[in-house]
Amino acid sequence: MLPTPAAGSRSATAASKVTVRIREYQKKRLFGGEAIATHPLDVPPLTYETTGLWIEIPGALPTLCAADELHFMGGSTRRSTR
C-alpha cells in the first residue's frame, strides 16, 4: 500500500495488462477538426503490461465536489460564460 493522502482514502499499485483495439480512423480538417471521412481498419490488438494505480475515495467526496460545482474525477461542471 502507498501512504494514504487523506483520511478515508486508500491507494495501491499492481501489475496490469492493457489491450487496445483500433477499429477505424478518421480524416479531419486541419483547421476546425471537422470529420471528412471515416475508414475501417483491420489490425491486430496491441497488448502491453504496465503498472496500474487504484485509488479508493471517501463516499462523500462526489457530493462535496458537486456542491462546489466540481467533478470529483477532475474539472469543473460550470458552464463557460464566453
Give the radius of gyration. 20 Å
Morphology: flat
Query: What is the number of helical segments per DSSP (H or I, 4+ residues)?
Result: 1
| Spatial sequence of strands, sheet with the most strands | 1-4
Question: Total domains, how many?
Answer: 1
What percentage of residues falls in helices of 4 or more residues?
Answer: under 10%
Secondary-structure element pattern, one letter each: EEEEH
Number of strands: 4
Strand content: 35-45%
Average of the residue pLDDT scores? 83
Sheet with most strands: 2 strands, antiparallel
Task: Give a structural overview.
- The protein is mainly β and 82 residues long.
- The chain has one domain (10-67).
- It has one helix at 61-67; strands spanning 10-20, 24-28, 35-40, 46-56.
- It has a two-stranded antiparallel sheet with strand order 1-4. Strands 2-3 form a two-stranded antiparallel sheet.
- The longest helix has 7 residues, at 61-67.
- It is flat, with a radius of gyration of 20 Å.
Structural features:
82 residues; mainly beta; two-stranded antiparallel ribbon; 40% strand; flat
In short:
Helices cover 9% and strands 40% of the residues. With 82 residues, the chain is mainly beta. The longest helix is centred in the last third of the chain and has 7 residues, at 61-67.
List the helices and strands and how they pair.
Layout (H helix, E strand, L loop, with lengths): L9 E11 L3 E5 L6 E6 L5 E11 L4 H7 L15
Antiparallel strand pairs: 1-4, 2-3
